[in-house]
Specification:
433 residues; alpha/beta; Rossmann fold; Transcription Regulator spoIIAA; 33% helix; binds iron/sulfur cluster
Length: 433
Amino acid sequence: MSKKVFIETLGCAMNERDSEHMLAELNKKENYSATTDFKEADLILINTCSVREKPVSKLFSELGVFNKSKKEDSKIGVCGCTASHLGEEIIKRAPYVDFVLGARNVSKITEVLHRSKAVEVDIDYDESEFAFSDFRSSTYKAFINISIGCDKQCTYCIVPKTRGEEISIPLNLIVNEARRATSKGAKEIFLLGQNVNNYGRRFSGNHEKVNFTKLLQELSKIKTLERIRFTSPHPFHMDDEFIEEFSSNPKVCKSMHMPLQSGNTKVLKDMKRGYSKEWFLDRVKKLRSMCPDVSISTDIIVAFPGESDQEFEDTMDVMRQVEFDQVFSFKYSPRPETEAEHFTEVVAPDIASARLTRVQELHTEHIDKKNSTQIGNVYRVYFEELFNDGYVSGRSDNNIVIKIKGSDEYLGEFRDVQITSIARTVLTGEVIK
Ligand code: 5AD
Ligand code: SF4
């Protein structure tokens, strides 16, 4: 009989893909199948995120809950970015944890399983060419890693310490993976990396030098592949060539994530982001002029150490000028082993909260304004999710979530949908073609 594994995945899309890889390895080599009930699991995995402090502190209370109610002989493994940065400390604080597996050691999952109290957290470990077994949680959309690690030195960010140096995955492996996914029914792929538009800067083996533009061009040749998305690009690497390929390649979805972080050039410098307010606005202008329907999403950190009221106003100013389609906003959270951890000009918590509220309120205004013009618009939607209330949902090319009344017959299909009603994050429509 097959054993059961329960995985809780926190954090980003890269973590989701890592969880798929772990499930695939466990299934193929150890005969595990997935369960959504941890109480019946033989193995419980938490794939953690450490980008902010909150999820890290929640980890130990969650581990306690798992330990109390789990099946008697079942094992608990802590994986992902918090595993990388806390390592052995996790077993010291929660001695019932059976193993700790860092974000760059995913391929060792079937090995640590059999070693009592194993801790594998080497951030120099190179998995860029590891042939993971195949598993995808969605048939319709395939996550594909194009690089591992991150070479940027953003002063607030823990990721280089949890995922190590950046290494690109060879072009032929990515193309083969995309071919396999499309032959199994995925018409959309989602390319993943910490800095996707820095693709090709370094490979671990001796591979042909190719950049991100070339990667997009090669993937576009796959006939059965209709849509390509990617995350996350870095504004610093958004040169004209990149924007031109993005705009002119019909298979590349017109949705761009442009993580601003701050709209103030001095704060950006303190963050070591490598661009200024003006560069960011210039890139948005170029993008919008070449691709008027593009939707732009962003990440914003408020209350970075030393951020004055006036500097914060620059972030609001960029928001007003760009009117982002989606904003992920965060209060700065000091992280261990980062440069900013030692910055002393801490912004008071009440000021940080007030700034976050202002960012969120301004964004809501922008969304309401945009949505008010949506009724009657028609979008080509690729359907990928079924709900049990009689609806299916999908995304437009420019990343708007749209749902219609319908069943699984729509999954993996494209339809033209006319918008009939609006809510803040989801639009509802009717199929017209
Ligand atoms: N504090 C708050 N937000 C952070 N992010 C990364 N590090 C921190 C931090 N120390 C945010 C950034 C990044 C997103 C994934 O998380 O906005 O783009
Ligand atoms: Fe993803 Fe960063 Fe969180 Fe790691 S720390 S899971 S890379 S968001």
